Amino acid sequence: MTTHSTATSRPHDQTVIDMLRADPEFMNDYLAVALDEIEQPGGQTALLAALRHIAEAQGMADVAKKAGIPRESLYRALSPKGNPTIKTLLAVINGVGLRLSVSRRFASYTCGAAGAEPDYANAPSVD
Description:
Largest sheet: none
Mean pLDDT: 83
Radius of gyration: 20 Å
Oligomer: single chain
Number of strands: 0
Strand content: under 5%
Order of helices and strands: HHHHHH
Number of helices: 6
C-alpha cells in the first residue's frame, strides 16, 4: 500500500510575510494595491493587514523602533480593529522604508487657464 503525504498548508498571513521577506521589492506593489483598493468594502482593514505583513516581514520591534512608537502600540494600531492616527500611519510607513505619495484621482479634471478660477461646478464628486 502506498501512502501519500499531503502538503502542509500555511496560513495566508505567513505566506505573504514569507513572500515579503524573500522579495523586499514586492512591498512597494503590495502596499500600492492596498492603497488603490482602500475605498472598496474591507479596504481599510486590508490596508492595515498589508502594513502589518510588511512590518512583520521586517521585524515588528525594528519597525516600531524606527517609527518611534512602542511595539505594543504598533501591534494595536495594525490590528484588524486598529484605528491608527495619521501620525502613527505615516511613522509606520516611514519605519518600513516607504514614502506615501498622492496623485490626482481624476486625470480629466483641470483647473482651466493659468490664473483662472477653477470650475468647481464640473469637478467630480468626492462623496
